[in-house]
């Protein structure tokens, strides 16, 4: 079974280009995903890896540290060794897709000409009125 994850976060570092022992090119980066609000805000970190066309698209987009992105991929826990020699587990996402998320920065809005006035559509143009007395309601 595969656990698929969809997350929006910021790159914690510039993507690192790597080559596997078998010659497969890939990139790695860390993704910071915030959750909660105010004093309860916390950040979850994911190690992301991308191959093939997803890798190529990330390089073409020139994603960099701080970029706000939406990722979709397969999540798994990866074992690692800490500096003290103990083992730990960290979440890793093998990416299926990545896209930039608009930053919400202010853009100049061009004024639009007023639309022709039409009566609002109430949605009940062809609905027949039904009258029910309170003692006949099923609840």
Shape designation: globular
Number of extended strands = 6
Lateral arrangement of strands in the main beta sheet: 1-3-4-6-5
Oligomer: single chain
Strand content: 35-45%
> What sequence of helices (H) and strands (E) makes up the elements?
EEEEHEE
At CATH level 3, the topology is: OB fold (Dihydrolipoamide Acetyltransferase, E2P)
Known CATH architecture: Beta Barrel
- Major pleated sheet: 5 strands, mixed, barrel
- Give the overall average pLDDT: 82
CATH class: Mainly Beta
The CATH H-level superfamily is Nucleic acid-binding proteins
Spans of 5+ residues with little confidence (pLDDT < 50)? 106-124
Separate helix tally:
1
What does the radius of gyration come to?
Answer: 25 Å
Total number of domains: 1
Alpha-carbon distance between the two ends: 43 Å
Please identify the structural class as seen in this structure: mainly beta
Helix content: under 10%
């Amino acid at each position: 079974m595969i656990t698929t994850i969809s997350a929006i976060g910021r790159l914690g570092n510039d993507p690192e280009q790597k080559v596997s022992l078998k010659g497969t090119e890939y990139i790695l980066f860390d993704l910071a995903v915030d959750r909660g609000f105010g004093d309860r805000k916390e950040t979850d970190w994911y190690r992301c890896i991308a191959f093939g066309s997803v890798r190529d698209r990330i390089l073409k987009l020139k994603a960099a540290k701080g970029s706000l992105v939406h990722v979709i991929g397969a999540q798994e826990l990866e074992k690692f060794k800490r500096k003290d020699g103990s083992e730990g587990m960290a979440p890793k996402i093998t990416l299926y897709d990545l896209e930039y998320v608009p930053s919400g920065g202010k853009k100049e809005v061009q004024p639009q000409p007023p639309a022709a006035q039409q009566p609002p559509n109430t949605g009940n143009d062809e609905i027949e009125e039904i009258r029910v007395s309170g003692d006949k309601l099923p609840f």
